Amino acid sequence: MNMNIHTLDLSEAIKKYATRFHTIEDLHPLLEQASQAKYVLLGESTHGTSEFYSLRAEISKWLIVNHGFSFVAVEGDWPSCYKVNRYCKGLTSNYSHASDALTSFRRWPEWMWANEEMVGFIDWLKTYNHEKPSSNKVGFHGIDVYSLWESMEEIVRYLESINSPDIAKAKAAFSCFEPYHKEMQLYGVSSTFYGQDCFEELMELLQSLHENRHLYEEESEGQLHLRMNALAVENAERYYRTMVTSDSESWNIRDEHMVEAIDEVTRHYGPQAKGIIWEHNTHIGDARATDMQEDGMSTSAS
């Protein structure tokens, strides 16, 4: 009986206080308040639902145009999003249309970002950035942790392009991962139960990159690309090494990585930078309000 009364009260409260919106203009009072924050977190209860993508795109456009937000960070891999970012900023001639740039999402779940709703937003962002100076172009970045192999490939490619003294260490670390054929569970089982992992090779590379960081300061976007791929590789190795034995610990590694990634991207854009974050509600909500906390899980926002 109490549950029915509670449900009735909630229904009445919704009828009394909820406000229906039809266009983005109806959200302006709420968006004006949100625009004062350093980060605006735009969630979704399901991945791939058209309405979420379309509304987030319209909200993001409004925040960018009216309040100068610096970047959009999404629940996607850094390497794939970096290609889209370069397209949006006019830094590459490899793609003639947003749909071409989005083909860089080749690994599951590619439909999360390579979809029709994203095409419109990415082309809008490229047009918006066209007349902007480099320092004011709005970025599009991936902050997820899954891109171990792709990020290793990017590190090797970048170090080769500048003839870096770290290339041998990078290739050694990459060759250690190659036998697992991009099978993350295979690497997790090997490291957890057989003590065969690539931790030492990876740490040697990351330490060397840190010691030689003065060599990687010529081009701003290139610096960020190297730092973010190194961060992804470090945390992805921890994630895959942990996922076989602990769901909650691997979840926390992933969400903590997202926070680190956002911090790194923010530093790139400067102290006044403001970001828009697109993620599932389980990442940007407060775990203390759910049973996730009982399972030992955190979320990026909490």
Automatic annotation (TrEMBL):
Protein name: Protein-L-isoaspartate O-methyltransferase
One biological process term in Gene Ontology: response to antibiotic
GO molecular function: methyltransferase activity
SUPFAM superfamilies (alphabetical): EreA/ChaN-like
UniProt-listed InterPro entries: Emycin_Estase, Hydrolase/PRTase-associated, UCP036794_erythomycin
Phylogenetic placement of the source organism: Bacteria, Bacillati, Bacillota, Bacilli, Bacillales
Gene3D superfamilies per the UniProt record, alphabetical: EreA-like, domain 2
Entry keyword Methyltransferase: yes
